[in-house]
UniProtKB/TrEMBL annotation:
Highest classification ranks of the organism: Bacteria, Bacillati, Bacillota, Negativicutes, Selenomonadales
Species for this entry: Sporomusa ovata
Name the UniProt record assigns to this protein: Uncharacterized protein
InterPro entries, A to Z: PyrdxlP-dep_Trfase, PyrdxlP-dep_Trfase_major
Amino acid sequence: MAFKYKFQMYKHLQANIANIYADARKAAEELNIPADIRGKFGMTGGISGCPAPLRDDIMHAGEEAGKKVIPLAGMVDQIRELVKDIYGDEYDAAPTSTCEAGLWVAFDSLFTPPNLGRGDNYRARYFAPLEKHFHHQGGYGRPFPGRYKDIIADRGTTPGELGFYGKRQNNLDTVIIPLAGAKYDVHGIKYHPCPLLTTVDAKQVYEDMKKFAQIHASMFTGITSLGYETPGYGYGEKDADGTPVLQKMYAKLANEYGVPYVIDNAWGVPGIGHNIRKSGADVIIYSMDKASGAATSGLIIGKEDIMVPIRRAMGLHGDRWGTGSSYGKAAYVTFDPGKEALATQIQALKVLRDNPEVYTKSVDDLYDVVVEEFANIHPKLKAGIIISKSYNSRAVEVNYEGTWGKGEMGLPIFSIEDMYSGTNLLQSGMAQMGVIPTVAYDGNIYISPDLATTDSKGNLLKDVMRYGVKAQIMLMEIIAKYAEIL
C-alpha cells in the first residue's frame, strides 16, 4: 500500500534495511562487478575519510621533496607565485594542513573579536546561509536565532565538547539565514530538515540578508558560504560569465557593510573552478587533497590585504624584524602542512596553471558515463532528476529533489544525520554492493573520479566507473520499490 504520510515511509524503510541490503548484494552479483575490485573502488575521491590514490606526478613531487633539503619559506613562496600567476598580483596564499584548519584560522583572524586589551570582549556575528554541509562553514559560532541551537544535532552533540560544538570560537555567533525559495522539508530515517536548494532565488536572498545585516549591524563581522556551482547546492542561477549569482550577492552585501566574505570551497579546485575575481569574495579555502589531488593539505587564497592577518597567524608573513615572508611559529603553527604536502600542492598548481585538461577531461568523460547510464533509470525517477557537470568540484551532480512533485512522494531523501548514523541507505547500500559510496544526502548525489576509477595519469577508467554508476542506479530503484513509489 502507498503511505499516507512520509514519516511512515521512512519507518517502513528502517524496518526493511536488512532486506534492502540483501537486494543490493544480489544486484551487485547481477552486475558482475569483478571480485578483485569490490570494496576497492568508489564514487568519489573527494572524501577526507577515504582519499584517492595520488597521481604519478603528484607522488613523484612528494617523494623528491622528501629526499632534499628545501627551506619551507621558499616552498610557500612558490605557492604564492603560482596563485598570483592564476589570479593576479593582488591575491596571496597561505597553505594549511587541512581545509578545516583554513576555515579555523580565517574565521579567527577575520570574524572574532580581539582577545587583547582591557575590558570585556564584545560579541561578533557572522552570517551563514542555511545550506548543505552547514556543520563545517556554519559551525564556528553559537547559533542565532535560538531555534537553530541544535542544528548540528547528533553529529555534534554525541561527542560533546570535543566534537563539532568544540569548534565554537571566542565570543562568536553564527547568524543562520534560510535561503529564499529553498525548501527545508523533514526527511530521512533520522528525521531532520533537509536543505533542498534547486529553487533558490538569489536576488531575494540578498534582500533578506540585507534585513538581517541591518538588525545585526553592530556585531556583523563577516559572511561565509560554499563555493560550489551546481543547482543542488543552490547555485544554479548564473550570470553571463557563468558565475553563480548567489555568491555575487553575498559579496555585494559584504562590500556594502565593509566585512569579509569567506568561501568554503573544500571540494573545489583552484584555477578551473570558482573564480574569486568574478564572484568578488575576499577569501576562498580549498581542501587540496580532495578534487585537486594533492597530499592531505589545505590552501587559503585571498586578497592581499585580507591575507596579511591570516598569514601572520600561520607564521608565514614576516620574520620578527619585519620582512614580507617567513616560515615561523605563530598562533596556528599547529596547522602547518609539512614539506611533502607543500611539494604536492606546488605540483598540482603547476598542472592547473599549465595543463588543466589533466583535471577537466576526466570530468567530461564521467559526465558522459553518468548521462548514458541514467538514461536507463525507471522513467518515474528520471523525470525528476537534474544532472549537472562541475569543473569546480570535478564532479557530476545528480539531484533528485524533483521526484517529489505534485503532492506525491518521490525517491526517499536522507538527511545528513542519516549519514552519520549509518542509515543513509543511498550510501550504506553501496557498501553492500562492494562500492565505496559518495556524498548522497539532501536529495543530492555527487559523483566524482579518482577513487581507483582513474589511472596513474588521471585518465578515467570508464568501465570501472560505469560499474559504480550502474550500482548507484540499481540501489536507487531498490530503495524506491521499498518506499512503494515504483
